[in-house]
Amino acid sequence: NAGVTQTPKFRILKIGQSMTLQCTQDMNHNYMYWYRQDPGMGLKLIYYSVGAGITDKGEVPNGYNVSRSTTEDFPLRLELAAPSQTSVYFCASSRKQGVNEKLFFGSGTQLSVL
Amino acid sequence: AQSVTQPDIHITVSEGASLELRCNYSYGATPYLFWYVQSPGQGLQLLLKYFSGDTLVQGIKGFEAEFKRSQSSFNLRKPSVHWSDAAEYFCAVGARNTGNQFYFGTGTSLTVIP
Predict the structure, then answer these.
(1) Of the candidates B44, B94, B105, which has its C-beta nearest A99's C-beta?
(2) B49 and B100 in contact (C-beta within 8 Å)?
(3) Separation between Cα atoms, residue A59 and residue A17, nearest integer Å
(4) Are A94 and A106 in contact (CB under 8 A)?
């Protein structure tokens, strides 16, 4: 059971570079999320998607873009990397929408912007 | 505003000892409450959740949590800790009035010593 798979696990970027964090799930979940986890902080929602072609901003969307062309994939794009984007990024999915739903998480991507 | 506080950044316990991890929340209505565990190199995994009914909920791996409305708390407990319980623990609240939002605490890191 693969669940939610994130790649890469680690990445170092220079300021101004761009990259895409990949996330794919094999559970046929419609709902997918991107969170970031900063040291000493809780997870913050960046973007979420309720289905293919539909995305919406979360709590901290600035500096990021997402797309959802298929049910399985929900990539997160950083266009102009900044040191403030140094963080651990988690992708998650859920079977249904609703704050009573269990989230399934990927193992995270540790990103450093230098 | 919704928030979750985990007062203990790091806790060390001896194997076989009991464990209690604290979680306090701020939310205007009856909350949906969760505990997640993150083992090294892994994504977050749901331990247990509370929606309504019995205020003492049982989860996986021998964990339980008690919802106390008067104290706005949802503390996680385990009677006898195993070395494999060493991990990061996150408390979260699902906030129905802000879309599909989950608010996470900053996490408590648990070390288990022989």
Answers:
(1) B94
(2) no
(3) 23
(4) no
What is the predicted pLDDT for the residue at B2? 74
Write the burial class of residue A97 (CB in 10 Å: 0-12 exposed, 13-18 middle, 19+ buried). middle
Judge contact between B102 and B2, C-beta under 8 A.
no
What does the alpha-carbon distance between residue B64 and residue B75 come to, in Å, rounded to a whole number? 8
The contact set of A with B (CB < 8 A) is: 3-4, 31, 35, 40-45, 48, 50, 56, 58-59, 90, 92, 97-100, 102-108
Residue B35: closest C-alpha in chain A = A102
Q: 């079977």: which residue's tokens? A: A95
Give the position of tokens 């403030």.
A84
Token pair of B82 as six digits: 């195993």
Q: Which of B93, B111, B1 is nearest to B49 (CA)?
A: B93
Helix and strand numbers (H, E) in chain B are: 0, 12
The nearest CA of chain A is from the CA of B64 a distance in Å of 17
Check CB contact under 8 Å for B43 and A108.
yes
Question: What pLDDT was estimated at residue A1?
Answer: 66
Encode chain B (114 residues) as per-residue pLDDT tens digits: 678 999 999 999 999 999 999 999 988 777 889 999 998 878 899 999 998 888 999 999 999 999 999 999 999 999 999 999 999 999 999 876 555 678 899 999 999 999
